[in-house]
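Field reference: sequence -> structure
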Amino acid sequence: MSDREDVPHLFLLANLVIMVAYAAIMVSIVVPVHRAGQLGSNKLATATAIIFFSCAVGHGLHAAMAWQALMVLNGAHPHGADPGWSSASAIWDAGTAAAGVYYWTLRRGYGVLLQKGAIYVDPWGQWRLDEADARERAARDLAAANQATLATIVEDSADAIIGLTPNGTINAWNGGAERIFGWTAREVLAQPATIFADAAGIGQQADMLARMRAGEGSFSYEGRRIRKDGSPVDVAFTVTPVTDPAGGVIGVSVIARDVSAEKEAAERQRAVQERSDQAKRMESLGNLAGGVAHDFNNILAIIANYTDFVIDETRELPHVQADLAHVRTAVDRATSLTRQLLTFTRGDAIQLRDVDLNASIAEVHAVLERTIGEHITLIAVPAPAPLYVHADPGQVHQILLNLAINARDAMPDGGTVVLEANVAALDGEELNMQPPLPAGTYARLLVSDTGEGMAPETAARIFEPFFTTKPRGRGTGLGLATVYGIVAEAGGSINVYSEPGVGTTFRIYLPISTATGPAPEPAHTDSPPQGDGRTVLVVEDEVPLARIITRILTNGGYRVRTAVNGAEGLRVFQEHGCDLLLTDVIMPEITGPKLAELVRRERPDLPVLFMSGYSNGLLGTTHVLDEGIAFIEKPFTSGDLLHRVFATMSHDICH
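Structure field:
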């Protein structure tokens, strides 16, 4: 083949290659523009596609012309080429040029001829793309700002926010975790979470991680953990699994809150509620015991005084006297028992004065030293200086004796008892104080032993009346109830600390008196003076007791008129008058204080002596009687009654 014959072949091949290339370029433009929905609106892209389409068709026509020339050379067309192809090609090339001019005009008109990446973008599309880009940048900036805010919130949160791997390695640690547990992020990252857990906590963590790996959702629990300094902290945990898009657990998010203060407050509230419940129980028991004592005292007064009458009248019968002495002893024991009941209920008539606790300890020590037993070591530790409280000295002795005897009974094989006095400052927040005390400085008595101690459930009930751990016949269960009543009546409180096998310490807190010394003891006369015929109106709803009182007063030289209730007493007074009113306090309908008020409307200077075996709070708390009134406690002896009647009359005559 000659060089002349090669030209058509090369021309044909070149045009076909260029045609395919232009067609491919056109397709690469049309397809994405069509997918973007801009085939009708994006004029520049459409013009570009038309140019490449036109070029592709033009080169196709040129290829057809080259093919025709080959046919002529090979003799397939002896008459020469078809002139129609040349004309079509020329016309098409002119159209292509026109499309190019149109494209060039669009590029120049839109001003994007030299703009990078803007080959297929029209101005409206460019504006929309710019607007979309601006929105995307704003969204990215907002997301970054939100992330920064969230990071700040997480870091500054009071709660600990901790990230863990599925096997328990720490991979996130915020400022709250550092404040709660004491470790910095640098110290704990890549460390196992067991770093701040005790043995129980390690078990909790292992169980939690196992539940997370098993696919369990978020849950909460509480536990105790250890701070960096070794101190414990109570923590409430909320744990949530962190999952990948496929749902696999890739970590654990832990939110931990320090609940130590909340638990302490709840525990304190529980203790306060328990103390309130205990006080209510004690009050109820006191009312019951006081009611029993009130009625029982009236019976004892009858038995005691009739026994005294028979003793006086049977002095020539020694065997009868001996029997009556046993009866009198039994009455005295019963009287002591009811007095303990009344002390427990704060109804005991007491003689308040300034008492030096050092002197009381010395006196009780002297008594116990001779009686407590050789197997007991008794130690007295007085305060460095005299320590005064305003109390009944007999009751202070009773406190020390009851506690010391209980201590002795708790040490059958021997031990040590310590009686101590000192001063203590309270802040008002102490637990296990019965009853609670406000903040202040108090005198404190301590009675300690090295005995058997008590279990907590026993210590919680020891002040209940009739509760005892001693064998039957060896204790009434009123000793500590009496101590409680005395201390509470004196405005104090009592605390007990005991451990089985170690021992027990009772702490009694009493208000300190500002006096510099004890008040003088009142003078007493051995023989009561005679009544000299003066009239006493006795108002007593227990008829047998009224008879006894009448007999005592008559034998003492008084004239007696009696009434069984307040209404009758008022009527008798209005009809006959009297020199002294002796009345029971608690009576139905008209009480003793009310009766006294009524009779004093007619005679304001009338002496009144109150008596009662049930005087719950008579000298203070319930205001049944005012302070400074004349009062005698049942049961009383004939001498007690006659002395008190004479003293009441003499006091009112002088005033």
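Note: The chain is about 50% helix and 15% strand.
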